[in-house]
Specification:
This protein is of the alpha/beta class. It is built from 18 helices and 11 strands.
Amino acid sequence: MTGGVTDTESTAEAAVRAAALPLPGGVPTDAELLDFVGGARYVLLGEATHGTAEFYATRARMTRTLVERGGFRAVAVEADWPDAYRVNRYVRGRGDDRDAVDALRGFTRFPMWMWRNTVVRDFVEWLREHNRRDPGRAAGFYGLDLYSMFRSAAEVIGYLQGVDPAAADRARERYACFDQHLDEQRYGYAAAFGAGQDCEDAAVEQLVDLQRMTTGRLPGDRPLDPDERFYAEQNARLVTAAEQYYRAMFGTRVDSWNLRDAHMFQTLTALGDHLRWDHPDEAKIVVWAHNSHLGDARATEMGAAGQWDLGQLVRENLPGVARILGFTTHSGSVLAAAEWDGPPRVERVRPSLPGSVENLLHRAGGDRFLLRFDREPVPERLRSALLERAIGVVYRPDTERQSHYFHARPADRFDALIHIDETTALAPLDPVTRPGTEEPGETYPFAV
């Protein structure tokens, strides 16, 4: 042992240094990225926090390469379906929004800054311009999450009003079951504890009715717009999933988390099927979400407790067609709230704890580097259990070990990692993001 570092730790650091691929340009070269992706149809790009500029910017730059050179035709993000679809209309030259800032105004639920920030704004403008220049290789922007139960129900009714008013009336009657509740959380509480009507049957009936409509034509033999039809059907599917989720919120955390990530996976595969309808060979999707959703849960202590996630579901159900890349950081700053629904503020990120993957990568040296676990050499220490940090939209540095760390095996959890040793906070488009009192959801992870 020399200077407080054991021989084992020195060996692990040396192994990381030997395997690390420097990123002098800040991102993998196009050749390196495309080699890593290979023939994958799904590329899952994570983040260790919801408020770090470098994570967002690196994902955006890599996604540009995958769209321009890799044949990817969609970006699916950890965001609500209707809010993201407004952006999708904008990047495809539809809708009434004048610019990306307007298109991102659909994001009104806490935490707005996850998507209303300068990096996403610039990427959305780039994607619109790419689609204008090269419409034959246009790419869309979609949401995977399920918090928007009431909003999605309204979107279903609005769609039907324009194509079949009688069907819209049926949808209003079914969704009226939710009207006695002020918000989703209150509905979930009432349904879970028998204090109100359970609306599950009504939501399922509406989904089945809409699916039945989409198999043919509407009154007047007018064909349905396939994209808007898909949008409406996904909204109806979201209402059924969200209804289960909000009831499960008052049960175990594992149950509600599993329902949420199962919905993300179902939305991702439905989007893949939709893209394949017109472009069978180009149904390739880039996913942006937190490491906690994208890293394979089977390699974590949460997985041992019965929790799964999107990354695990993709690997199990779509074997061999996905790549998962996570991110880590040692220290710096982050944009986060002190409590749920609080205003965002820039917080210092504490240096990573000894015994964590972040600390090991920091000690190995290098400002920014890539570790690939799909080829040798893979540092053996990264196949064993280490602490891993997860900061969401709430950061609690005073209880960081309990609130933000869990055990995981990094090389089994991801196909690659990008480590950025010191990072900086996102720049939000809005100085304060406190639209009202929203339910404390699971947008941020914390240790079990």
